Amino acid sequence: SNPFEVKVNRQKFNILGRKTKNDVGLPGVSRSKAIKKVRAHKKERTNVFKDKRFGEYNTKISPEEKMIRRFTLERQQNYGKKNIYNLNEDEELTHYGQSLAEIEKLNDIVDSDSDTEERGTLSAELTSAHFGGGGGLLRKKASSGQQDEEEEKPKSRKELIEEMIAKSKQEKQERQTRRESALELTEKLDNDWKEIQTLIARKTPKSERKEKEAEKPKPDEYDMIVRELGFEMKAKPSERMKTEEELAKEEQARLQKLEADRLRRMRGTDEQANKKPSHVSADDLADGFVLDTDDRRLLSYKDGKINIENEEEEEKEGEEEEEDDEEEGEKEDNENEEESEEESANEDEEDVAADSHSDLESDLESEEEAAGNKEQKKHKTNENESQNVEELDPKMEAAKSELPYTFAGKRRIDPCCLQGNMYSEKKANNFNILCFLQKLVGFLLEYIGELATLDLPELRTIDKLVLFMYMKLFRLLIKDFKLCYDSAQFPLQSVFSVGFDSMNALRELDENGIKKCYSKLIQKFQINTLQECRITTLQDVIKGLFICCLFLEYVSLSRRFVPELINFLLGVLHISLPKKQAQGYTVVHPFTPVGKNLELLLVCDKKDLESWQKQNLPLSIVTRLKETSRTEMNHIRLSCLALCFDLIKKCAALYESLPSFHEIMHPVRIVLTQHMPVNEYPEKMQEWYHFALKELENKVKHYAPLICEKKKPVPLKQYTPRIVKVLEFGKKLTGSKKEQERKQLIQKHKRELKGAIREIRKDNQFLARMQLSEIMERDSARKRKVKELLGSLATQEGEWKAMKRKKGKN
Amino acid sequence: QLPTGLYKKVLIILHDSILPYMNEPTLMIDFLTVAYGIGGAISLLALNGLFILIHQHNLEYPDFYKKLYSLLDPSIYHVKYRARFFHLTDLFLSSSHLPAYLVAAFIKRLSRLALTAPPEALLMVIPFICNLFRRHPACKVLVHRPNGPEDMSEDPYVMEEEEPSKSRALESSLWEIQSLQNHYHPDVAKAAAILNQSLPEMEDDISGLLELTAYELFDKEVKKKAVDVPLEFEQVRGLFGKKNDIFAEHFALD
């Protein structure tokens, strides 16, 4: 209606047959209509802010509960299907809407007091100086109110900056000096503390530790709580206790596995020489140290700390010798003092060691202080060894938790024994004890040797001691062995006795974890003794039989054939027979078919024969045969014979799988069947005899002809196609790989050279072009100048001519 | 005629200090023959002189090999003159004209006796036997008899027979060496295991092994480096504390 409100949409071309809809529009009208519509729509609406927070206005619920409910609600909301498999994604923890992790990060930055952080923040002065713009003016304005009269005169910008720099430098220096002094103070404090600590450590280790804690700045209480919560133990369902049977089963399985491993090793060396025997079982037993220590109850405390142990161990081994000497020296010095001390020390265990020990003590102490060890020990020397032994024995019986350690001086003839008591099994939580033990082991071994060579070997003591031993220092012993072998090779008899004594002591060590090589060495040694030592006395026979026992045990698993064993047993049988001419078997080396040592084991006395009863041979008779009656001697002889029968039985059981078992056992069988005066023996002996014989005889004879292993056929040589990489088409690569590489390099070099030449040429061209253009420019400039000059001259001439003409006119 | 000690001394130096300087070494024939017949160590020593006479002076010695065969008894591996004896035996048996039965008898007897021998002797005698096999391939039936009877109840070889031809060695097999493959000394076991395979052509040089002593073996063992291998896994229970301990059965600690 209103022509001003009408908007006409003009059409450029009229298209036939099309109705035009929007040729005329009324924008104002439609807008007002729309506004009206919206208003009408809004009329019914009342917009309310609805608080959907859980229980916000519910006063009945306590705030904590409210929080918990809200939290659970939120968790429920978030817990959807897609989150089921989201295992390790924890939701972010917040505090007042801020992520805790970020807060912590920030804290870190604030806490640290290093120089670099402060460099980042700008002082107000600096900022104003830099960004103030026109420094002086702004500064005057800002500071006019506060500054004194002196500074009324505005400083120049340069002065200001210099001042600032000086100030900051000063500040920095001050800071540094402060820090240095603090450092010095702490150091001093540490030293002081160390001095005091040695005094305190022994008596009140616990309080000491508390003091230490107190020294540190007390941590924030909130922090502590947080930590506590963080590290709080959560109860977990423990594993069901295992029944005895299950335990036994597990143990069996473990043993079987180890056994299988062992067998594999054994065969590995046999059948496949190329397969290295260095196989180590999957269990962590490979580490000799762990293996050895595992067995002993003493070291049961070291859980999870094995790694560090090993390191320490290595260190220790180096140190060991030095310390030995050290200790020894000290011993000598203090011998007198300590003697008097001895008794009192026994009673009072908390007694601190004498002053003379202090440096040694402090040495150890400094080692120990790291972990706050609570071990206490005392050393004392005894001059008289036997006395020492006597002292040892009751102690051991009495106090199991106490480990009496006794070591003999290294190379001294009358050994002073240093004895240390340690009772730290449970308390000790570090490895220093371990190291200490390692040191002790050396002495212990020596001591055992000492005990074994006594007139009256203290086998029971050794028995006890051996429990705590392990093999770390075994190699040392081997060397000793070698030494004694070297020195006593010719009087083999002495080797026999020496060897026996040490072996006696070593036997258990042997079994416990010796490496293969060592046991082999010992075997070798013992074999030598078995086959080369002449048998002259009853003791020799017993020693020999003892070694035979050892051997049987060595080979009980591997079933290795030991000829010397059979030879010796045969010999023993031989000397138990009355002299006879007709034989049918031959005895070998250490025994002779004729000679004075025959009939060593022969017993003729009827009464003795009847009164004999099987008894265990006491090992002490080996070194010192008691002056006993004939009867007892005869009894011992019979015991030997019985032992021999038993060993034969065991050998037979062990070797029955050998293809020439019957040939091996042939002489033994002949002796047993044809020469033994069985009927004269007591019943028990006859029993032994029959056991042995049965074991020998009821083996089937079984000979299968030998057949060589088939040779692996050597494969025919064949011409396989040679495959060559083609790097560049059209070119054949011949020759070896090296040659090819060389060629390729040459090619590359050529190409590069060409490229370089081209480049140089291009450069030269460019240069020439530039020069040319320069010359041209100069030329053109000169031309232009010449032209200008000429032009100016021409105009001058023209003017001059015009002047002339004018003059002429005039 | 002579005391034993003197006999031995004379025989030891006979071959290099007496025989070369005699105008007529053949005069020693009777002496050596008697010595050879005595047996034991003296026979072993007489061998050397006899060998020179046979070799350089055309001595015809009847039943020489039979005598040599009968010299083999368990003590040869233990006596001092082991190296000398085996050196000579090696010489005597190096002839390729010897009948197979004889060599087989020697092989069988040596290996039978090896069952009581010390390891150093074994380390020597096993290559020795290998060499015999190489020289006399006809004897290889002792280690390789593919079409033989399946199972024998008795070793056909007769140990007590003096005559090598009647010892039926060729019908037997070298079970002794097979047993030695289980020897406790690993080197011996390894050496014995060689006979399982077919032998390489080259002969082993045993001259270095002849003088091997137990001491050398021990020395070698000491120098060896070994890899640490856990062996024992049973807990310690004192000296005699183990289960089924032989020691606990027969010995007491006092």
TrEMBL record, chain A:
A biological-process GO annotation: maturation of SSU-rRNA
InterPro entries: Nop14
Compositionally biased intervals (Basic and acidic residues): 152-195, 205-274, 293-308
Chain positions covered by the region annotation Disordered: 127-397
Biased composition (Acidic residues): 309-353, 361-370
Compartmental location: Nucleus, Nucleolus
Entry keyword annotation includes Plastid: no
One matching Pfam family: Nop14
Record keywords, A-Z: Nucleus, Ribosome biogenesis, rRNA processing
Predominant location: nucleus
Domain of life: Eukaryota
GO cellular component: Noc4p-Nop14p complex; small-subunit processome
PANTHER family given in the database record: NOP14, NUCLEOLAR PROTEIN 14
Family: Belongs to the NOP14 family.
Its job: Involved in nucleolar processing of pre-18S ribosomal RNA. Has a role in the nuclear export of 40S pre-ribosomal subunit to the cytoplasm.
Protein name (database record): NOP14 protein
Organism of origin: Corythaeola cristata
UniProtKB/TrEMBL annotation, chain B:
Pfam families: CBF (PF03914)
CC terms in the record's Gene Ontology section: Noc4p-Nop14p complex; small-subunit processome
InterPro entries, per the entry: CCAAT-binding_factor, Noc4
Alphabetical GO biological process terms: ribosome biogenesis
Transmembrane spans: 31-54, 85-107
UniProt superkingdom: Eukaryota
Keywords in alphabetical order: Membrane, Transmembrane, Transmembrane helix
Family per record: Belongs to the CBF/MAK21 family.
Protein name according to UniProt: NOC4L protein
Species of origin: Corythaeola cristata
Gene name of this polypeptide: Noc4l
